[in-house]
Structure formats: structure tokens, C-alpha cells
Amino acid sequence: MRSITISNIDRYIKIMENGEFIISDKSYSSGIKSLKYKLNPKFIVGISKFELPTDIKLYKRIVNNLYKRKAHYNRLEPHLKVMRDEFMKMELDYPEANKWVLNNSNEAQKLSYLTSLNHMEDKRFRYFKRNKTNNRLDTNLTNLKSSLRQFILGDYVSIDIKNSQPFLLGILIDNIINNRDTLCCYLHKEKLLQTFGIKVIRKVLLFHQNQEKSTMVKLRDFYDSVFNGTLYDEFVIRYSGEITRNKVKDIMFKVLFSRNEFYSGYRKTIPYEKDKKVFASVYPFVYETVKILKKKEHRILPIYLQRIESYLFIDCLAKELVKHGIIPFTIHDSVIVKSEHLQQTIEIMDEVFKEQIRAVPTYEIKKLNDTLYQNIKRAV
Phi/psi at 293 (nearest 5 deg)? Predict the structure, then answer.
């Protein structure tokens, strides 16, 4: 913000905060978390679009900043350059997309969705870059609400991995316990030791050895459900209480991404403790293993899973698809391809997953301009 606007922007932030035009979460930790701000919802009444005059400094700074962000494109790998060129050609039915937003979202959502659409339409704002933290390929498409993808012009289908993060978690745990031989560089023993540390890996193995007889059945159940893409539905059946499928997804997210515990003064607090107990009641070994892997730093495990996902989709699958003349749009754990390439894409995906991790997940296939879904299951 300083580079684009003014160096003393803190003064203006304070004015906006004192006037309650923006709201802060008041949560700051040096080197760990920055303050977050959002517009005060009570001021979001109606949306107007305006353009900056081209002769003012702010306009020039914004444009220069956009050019700087794109300076790294020449360093992209060959297959990513091809994908980036195709992405820049992508068009949406903007009038219909805008109409959908106006009819299907509240004021705050409208502001976000319309801004995303505007950044897609004005190609100066399109971005295509690898995330330095998790290696994901971030684009305007990955930041676009899923319901708006139906307005991409052309005959496209989306192929997603069902319960992607739990699936990769199952692969990771299996690889640690059984020392599987795969081509995926992130599953090599050396990489695991480097990331989690030898003490953590040994602790997982020791815990597995001690718990093998009592928890192996449920561990097998977890593997089967993630490979078949039925984790959330089967969890609802296995849990003794009342729970919805969406709640299970929310619980899985909290188990993977939240801290094990933190201290406020001398008091220990476990974030989302009730939800974690629900998960532990169904899959105790998986829950305890996740806790061990997050013991050193809670962000290591989710980032590691995202790096595996990025390696498989961007460095392996996308590269192979481009090699066969299929240029995909990627959204983290899914690819969007032309309908005519659907069958060949699935075959290539099967081969890539078999080669890299010795397992093929379940795909969920959706025609972007249709509401019909199709599940394709593969044997482990």
C-alpha cells in the first residue's frame, strides 16, 4: 500500500479506523501475524464503479505496480508459459456473471465478487504466479467464486479430487508408516525428515506400533473413505451423534489447520476442542498423528500437504497435459479442460497419480455450464 499510495498511510488508516469506516481484528504478533482490516458492513450500501483519471500519480503508481508484478513471467517454466498465455485469452460472459452476482449475493459479497470479475475483464489486473509458501499456482481464477466459473465462455469441464487434503493426508501417513517407494519428491524419506524432524517421524512410528492392534481397523476405514471420496458421508454414518456433511468438512479443516494448543498467561487452550473430540472419536489414530505432525509448528503439516498437491497438479499433471496438447486451467486440486479432452485428461491423471504416489483418487466431474455431477471411482 505504501509503494502504491503514500508513505505515511498509517495516518490515514488511523483516521479510517477512528471513524469506524474500517474494522481491525486487533490481532497482531510480530513476525507471525499482521493486523487485518475490513470495511465496516454498515457503510456498504450500494456499489458504484469509477475510474481514476490517467494523469494523476495514483493511477500511474497502480499501473507501474501491475507491470512489476508481471516481470517474473519470463522466468516461468515452458509449460507454465503456455498455460499463462491460454489463461490470458480466457473470457467470461461478464453481463450474465454480473447479473448473477446482483441477484445472488449480499452487499459485502457483491463488492468482492464484482471486483473479482472486474479484475478478470481488465486484463491488466490478471495475475499468474506461484505462491512462495506452498508453491500453489495463484491466478484470478483460483480467487473467483466457484459459482461464477459457469460463465467461462466455451465448453469446459472441471475435474476435482474429492476430499483432496484428507486424501493427501492419508497418503502421507501411509508413506511414513510403510516407507512407500514413490516418485513424489515430497514423500521421500529425506524430505519428510527435513520437514518434520527425525524425532517427530519416530514418534509417529512408535505411536503406530503401540496402537496398531486397537486402531488399525479405523485407520483402514479412513484410507478407504478418502480413496473412494466418501470421507464426509461415511463420517456422518460412523459418528454416534447427529452431524451434517458440511459440519464434517468444517471439522476436518479445523483439525488440519488450527493449532494443537496455545497458552494465554498460564492457561492452556485447545482451539475448537469440541470439534476435535468429535473427529478423534471416529478416527483416533489419524487425529493423534496429525497432532504429532503439528507439534513443532502447526502450519508445517497443511503447507506440506499443499506442496504435495501443487507438485502433483502443477509440476507433474499440468506439464503432462500440455505435452499432449491439452492446456488446462488449474484451481489448486482441480483442473478445467475442454470437454473434448475429458477422457484423455482422466487417463493422464490416472497415470500421473499411479506413477507419483501409487494411488488414484476419486474424481468429481462437473460441466461448467451444467448442474450435473459425475463421480468416477478408481481402485487404490
Answer: -70, -20
Separation between Cα atoms, residue 284 and residue 164, nearest integer Å = 20
Query: In the block, which residue shows the cell 473467483?
Result: 144
Query: In this predicted model, what pLDDT tens digit does every residue of 32-47 receive, in sequence order?
Result: 678 888 888 888 777 7
Q: Report residue 265: phi and psi, to 5°.
A: 70, -120
CA 181 to chain centre: 26
CB atoms within 10 A of CB 209: 10
Determine, yes or no, domain membership for 88: no
Tens of pLDDT, residue by residue over 231-246, are 999 999 999 888 999 9
End of a domain among 303, 338, 354?
303
What does the block give as the cell for 305? 500437504
For the chain, the domain total comes to: 2
Indicate whether 86 belongs to any domain: no
Give me the domain span that covers residue 299.
165-303
Dihedral-angle region of residue 252 (phi above 0 means left; psi in -120 to 50 means alpha; beta otherwise)? alpha
Of the candidates 72, 117, 64, the one whose C-alpha atom is nearest the C-alpha of residue 90 is 117
Residue 351 domain-assigned?
A: no
Closest to 292 measured CA to CA, from 318, 260, 267, 264:
260
> Of the candidates 253, 269, 303, which is a domain's last residue?
303
Residue type, 288: E
